[in-house]
Write a structure and sequence with these properties.
302 residues, Rossmann fold, two-stranded parallel sheet, 13 strands, globular, Epimerase_deHydtase, NAD(P)-bd_dom_sf, NarL family transcriptional regulator
């Protein structure tokens, strides 16, 4: 089975590619902008005709799109998250219409949730900012494409390799910098928002199952832990694993999105039914793996 992974150099893409390589008989190829990519594709800029030519050469049985932008201005987000998937679908219809497309979406597409409630795939979508809005546009491009496609709406990924551009990776970096100093102070924003943190390794497993599942799949599947956790709990959990002895103060300005979206939690029943997928890593396991992965080379961690 020939599988083309777009965005392999990113956080999710690296884990997804590793998981796919473990599939029996799988040949996994890297598609992207980096010079070392097996197939050069720039979703944000390439015209569909050029993408189609590359796809015809790659001849994939499945394409997993992990590419996208989480930060930047609205134009950057739109190019990567909305225009990119639309152009990819157009190219696939021309060059590889039988290939399965697995596209990584985001729970941010739903917008604010109702406290105490898990959101299902049929819920209305009300994204509050450019990121969620552009990810939703990408989802609509896939679900309306007529391809054998599925969108995995991923919660907040956490686990080994989390980048400092996201909250878990940023907190881990701050804790490494602070060390065991009892006078250290982490000044953070409001940590009361609740998020559905899902281990990145569980996301990769879901992508692999979506690639290999027989028959058509539902157009959208939630991939989360199915449990909302206060961001404060995640920060304290990481601090405990770091042996942090200082203070955590919630006095700095928080993110606008946290203020607008105080609760997010996904119902993952449909993924269990369609893929046989269940989250396997509890949050404590994810935080331990994240902390261990940030240790300097040659350092032993408990």
């Amino acid at each position: 089975m020939r599988i083309l992974v777009l965005g392999r150099t990113g956080y999710l893409g690296a884990h997804v590619a590793d998981r796919l390589r473990a599939l029996p008989g799988a040949r996994v190829f890297d598609g992207g902008r980096s010079p070392g990519a097996d197939f050069g594709i720039d979703l944000a800029a390439d015209p569909p005709q050029r993408m189609a030519a590359v796809l015809a050469t790659a001849a994939p049985d499945a394409v997993v799109n992990c590419a996208g932008a989480t930060g930047g201005d609205a134009v950057t987000l739109a190019e990567a998250n909305a225009r990119g998937p639309a152009a990819l679908c157009a190219a696939l219809r021309e060059a590889a219409p039988a290939a399965r497309l697995v596209h990584l979406g985001s729970a941010a597409e739903y917008g604010p949730g109702t406290p105490g409630t898990r959101v299902t795939e049929s819920a209305a979508t009300h994204p509050v900012g450019p990121y969620g809005a552009t990810k939703l546009a990408g989802t609509l491009a896939v679900t309306a494409s007529g391809l054998d496609g599925v969108v995995l709406r991923v919660g907040n990924p956490v686990g080994p390799g989390a980048p400092p551009s996201g909250l878990p990776g940023r907190i881990a970096a701050l804790l490494r910098e602070a060390g065991p100093d009892p006078e250290a102070v982490l000044r953070l924003g409001d940590l009361s928002a609740h998020r559905d943190f899902v281990d990145v390794r569980d996301v990769a497993h879901a992508a692999a199952l979506a690639v290999t599942a027989p028959g058509p799949l539902p157009p959208v599947l939630n991939i989360g832990a199915g449990r909302a956790v206060a961001v404060r709990e995640l920060v304290r959990g990481l601090a405990e694993r770091a042996g942090f002895r200082g203070r955590i103060e919630e006095e700095a300005p928080g993110s606008a999105r946290s203020a607008q979206v105080s609760w997010q939690c996904s119902d993952v029943t449909a993924a269990a039914e369609a893929l046989g997928w269940h989250p396997a890593h509890p949050l404590g396991d994810s935080l331990a793996a994240l902390w261990a992965a940030t240790a300097p080379a040659g350092t032993l961690t408990p």
